[in-house]
Amino acid sequence: MNIDFHLFVDNFVSAIEAKDSYTAGHSDRVAEISLLLSQKLQLDDDLCFQIHMAAHLHDIGKIGIPDGILLKTGRLTSPEFEVMKSHSEVGFNILKNNPGLKQISKMILHHHERYDGTGYPDGISGREIPLGARIIAICDAFDAMVTRRTYKDKITLSAAKEEIIKQKHKQFDPDIADTFIELLNDTVTLEDIHQIISKSATS
Predict the structure, then answer these.
(1) Mean pLDDT of the chain
(2) Whole-angstrom Cα distance, residue 180 to residue 74?
(3) Rama region for 199: left / alpha / beta (φ>0; ψ in -120 to 50; rest)
(4) pLDDT tens, 12-52?
């Protein structure tokens, strides 16, 4: 049996799109930016591919979040946010029993950990956090910053870069943050970044 894994992942993510169109568009953008960043970090092709797939699937656990919370147009209450936080563990549980997806499932589990140890679900810090999860975390946050939601306005690319720099050693791995800023400043890849961001207008 010959299966196009990337196409399979795209089809899998469409299950979320049926509930929340923003999540699917967001996952596509995070996946493309994560791939650019992984390549900028000169990771090997196999790891770049795994990170790219994990980024596509990083929010797959939202399929288990009640619609009243997932689709809420305003800010979540504290109890609602606790439910929303469970999506990383739900996503991990969906994929963890497939041996070929072991590393990808761990990236999904830990993509909301913070470098300083104040993230979730396990509160791990620094390089305890899988490399792929540290990469996805910064790309996930970046897309959230530059994309408009019903409860917040988007910010400029310049403001997003300032926020990333401010969050070094706190939310983000400082070395990955520095490389990401280089990526955003690069005259070639910046066009790619702008094209990815522009997709948010129709997502």
Answers:
(1) 89
(2) 30
(3) alpha
(4) 777 777 777 676 688 889 999 999 999 999 999 999 999 99
For residue 153, tell me if it sits in a domain. yes
What is the tens place of the pLDDT at every residue in 133-169?
A: 999 999 999 999 988 776 678 888 899 999 999 999 9
144: DSSP letter? H
Total domains, the chain? 1
Helical residues (DSSP H) of the chain, grouped into ranges: 5-17, 21-40, 45-57, 67-70, 78-85, 87-95, 102-109, 131-146, 157-166, 174-185, 189-198
Please provide residue 41's backbone torsions phi and psi, each rounded to the nearest 5 degrees: -80, -5
User: Which residue from 202, 201, 161, 199 is spatially nearest to 28, judged by alpha carbons?
Assistant: 199
pTM of the model: 0.90
CATH number for the domain including 76? Answer: 1.10.3210.10
Residue 64 burial (CB count, 10 A):
15
Q: What are the Cα distances from residue 115, in Å, to 7, 37, 84, 96, 175? A: 32, 18, 21, 23, 11
Domain assignment of residue 203, yes or no: no
Confidence of residue 203 (pLDDT cuts 50, 70, 90): very low
